[in-house]
Design goal:
The complex is a heterodimer of chains A (270) and B (349). Chain A contains ten helices and ten strands. By secondary structure, chain A is an alpha/beta fold. Chain A has one domain: Rossmann fold. In chain A, a hairpin with a 2-residue loop joins strand 1 and strand 2. Chain A is globular, with a radius of gyration of 19 Å. Chain B is mainly α. Chain B has a single domain, classed as ABC transporter involved in vitamin B12 uptake, BtuC (Orthogonal Bundle). Chain B has a two-stranded antiparallel ribbon. The chains are: A alpha/beta (270), B mainly alpha (349). The interface between A and B is large, with 42 and 36 residues.
Chain lengths: 270, 349
């Protein structure tokens, strides 16, 4: 089956550091893909390339089978591809509602709209709707983001991603600042989005969680994607062995009962 | 948990909101109070001369040019940039405008006997040129800042020198003569209802449009977003470089308006003028509550803030202190304003 989006043989250099070194990854509609790897494996860089923020030094991205060039996130946004950043990428002096619509601001109808006048009521409605779907309560959506808690900010960033990543949502550690209950809300929202056909990529350090929610798991090491396997065929132990370079992916035995065995190791990876 | 909204988390939120409300809304109140204090002090110091209606009218007129420049400066500071070249920009706009008005309104012989057969042409081209030159200088500033990735402080400090040199070079150091006095009698000296000077009306228009665009439009929102977090704005799909260039162009356009108003008001150019304008303008904007580091901007604050350097400078002139004291006082005010901004930011974090 033709993937929705594919990154092929991507290389990215930051000065002398090679962050990606021939990474290849295909993402399908309606799937949830967990992207894992040790620190520095290139997960975030790959997400930034797929989302249009970084132009790769080598390789290309195709979208629905056609090669596309993303010059900036704007090109990716135009295709419904959106990144939820680990550092959230919110403007602290803007309100929650202003942050949600920034870059996609609703304008008034008619002449005033053509002059660039904001439709603040529509922005408020959209924000309320998106937050309600995530079961997030903000004391006041006209509150400046600098006055929100870490969890509220992260929820807002996820709500942004769900709003604009209606074709493909790329999430970098989306639950890092969230508690258990809120994390469950985010994963249920991800599942809903995937069920409606959105391709979702989630970068996470929490391997147990990844195995729970993901359809497939992509394992990165040293700037490459070493293996992409169905989550149900993997255990935490196998993932760790591949991402730490203990075994080559082809030689991995995939016993189905091993997921509990490796669980004690997870903290070491974090 | 952080995302719940129980009473425990609501109360510090409310307190923060109250503090930030006091610091933003009431900064307007404190500026107004400060203004009243200045007026009262100078009323006594000048035996009431300061309180004459003509003095208020002249202060409002003086403030108009400063406010127009400061409207543009409010946007620029709100986006986290600044422009030190505004004074020199105004002078260059004056010179180009005045040269074209004098040159196109009649032959040298006609103009030197104050006959202007083509006055309409001269004024149209001269005024358009002031706006164009001011805007172009702004665009150059903006392109240097965004393309060369040089800090706007350095770029506009350099531009200040370039423009001051140009002003002398273009005129040979001599102010332009034979500017039609009709500009004063038919425009700048006019008063609506015999009370409100024409310049004040122009200022009110610019401030009104500036305030509405800042609060109600996408352009205003994106301006503040850029000042709040440049990278977040980029990641939200904004085009920071283009927007920054447009903001410098906007400041330049405001300088162009200021330049043509100067020509109309004095029927003269002033090569040595506007030495204090950049300093006064940044002082006015920051005193009004716009952050020097971007992310917060208010036009109402700027309009009130601009009256502080103007009322002080006028008072100092009336009590006949040495002009150098105006510079000293304005400098001290800027330092005060920036300290207040720092306090505001610290409370906000």
């Amino acid at each position: 089956m033709l993937p929705l989006m594919e990154a092929r043989d991507i290389a990215v250099d930051f000065g002398h550091i090679r962050a990606l070194d021939g990474a290849t990854l295909g993402i399908h509609r309606g799937e949830t893909l967990g992207l894992v790897g040790d620190n520095g494996a290139g997960k975030t860089t790959l997400v930034r390339v797929l989302g249009g923020e970084l132009v790769p030094d080598r390789g290309h991205i195709s979208f629905e089978g056609e090669v596309v060039t993303f010059h900036s996130v704007r090109d990716a946004h135009a295709l419904g591809v959106h990144i939820v950043y680990q550092d959230l990428a919110l403007a602290p002096d803007l309100t929650a509602a202003e942050n949600l619509v920034l870059g996609h601001e609703p304008l008034l109808k008619g002449f005033a709209g053509r002059l660039g006048f904001l439709d603040r009521a529509a922005a408020a409605r959209e924000t309320q709707l998106r937050l309600r779907r995530l079961h997030i309560q903000l004391p006041n959506i006209e509150e400046k983001v600098r006055n929100l808690s870490g969890g509220q900010r992260q929820s807002l960033a996820v709500a942004r991603g769900l709003t604009y990543g209606h074709v493909c949502m790329l999430m970098d550690e989306p639950t890092a600042a969230l508690g258990a209950q809120q994390t469950a809300m985010v994963y249920s929202a991800i599942a809903q989005a995937a069920a409606s056909g959105v391709a979702v990529v989630v970068v996470s350090h929490d391997l147990r969680q990844v195995l729970e929610f993901a359809d497939r798991v992509a394992i990165m090491r040293h700037g490459r994607v070493l293996a992409v396997e169905p989550a149900r065929s993997l255990g935490v132990r196998e993932i760790i062995d591949i991402m730490m370079g203990a075994v080559a992916p082809s030689s991995v035995d995939l016993p189905h009962d091993s997921s509990s065995r490796g669980n004690d190791e997870i903290r070491d990876i974090d | 948990m952080a995302t719940t909204t129980g009473p425990q988390t609501a109360s510090p939120n409310q307190r923060q909101r109250m503090v930030s409300w006091m610091l933003t809304r009431t900064s307007v109140f404190w500026v107004a109070l400060f203004l009243v204090a200045i007026v009262v002090i100078f009323a006594f110091a000048t035996d009431g001369v300061y309180l004459r209606f003509t003095n208020f009218k002249s202060m409002a007129t003086n403030a108009s040019v400063l406010i127009i420049v400061s409207i543009g400066m409010t946007y620029l500071l709100g986006a986290g940039e600044l422009d030190l070249s505004v004074g020199a920009n105004i002078v260059v706009a004056q010179i180009v405008s005045a040269k074209l008005i004098v040159g196109l309104s009649g032959t040298t012989a006609e103009v030197s006997s104050r006959v202007y057969p083509n006055l309409a042409l001269g004024l149209t081209v001269g005024f358009a040129a002031a706006l164009l030159v001011g805007t172009l200088i702004g665009v150059v500033n903006g392109l240097l800042v965004t393309k060369l990735r040089v800090n706007s402080f350095i770029v506009t400090l350099g531009m200040l020198g370039v423009l001051q040199g140009m002003a002398i070079g273009l005129t040979g150091g001599v102010n332009i003569q034979y500017i039609p006095r009709q500009l004063q009698s038919e425009f700048a000296a006019l008063e609506l209802f015999d009370i409100i000077p024409a310049l004040v009306i122009v200022m009110a228009l610019v401030a009104g449009v500036g305030g509405i665009v800042l609060k109600r439009t996408r352009y205003g929102l994106r301006t503040v977003a850029l000042g709040s977090d440049r990278q977040a704005a980029l990641r939200a799909g904004l085009q920071p470089d283009r927007h920054i260039v447009s903001l410098f162009a906007l400041v330049g356009f405001c300088c162009g308006i200021a330049g043509l108003l100067d020509v109309a008001r004095f029927a003269a150019t002033n090569l040595g003028g506007h030495a204090l304008t950049a300093l006064s303008s940044i002082t006015a904007v920051v005193l009004g509550g716009t952050s020097l580091f971007g992310g917060a901007a208010t036009i109402v604050g700027t309009v009130l803030g601009a009256f502080i350097p103007v009322t002080l400078q006028t008072g100092l002139i009336i009590i006949a202190t040495h002009p150098a004291w105006q510079l000293a006082v304005t400098g001290a005010l800027l330092i005060t304003a920036v300290s207040l901004d720092q306090v505001r930011r610290r409370r906000n974090l």
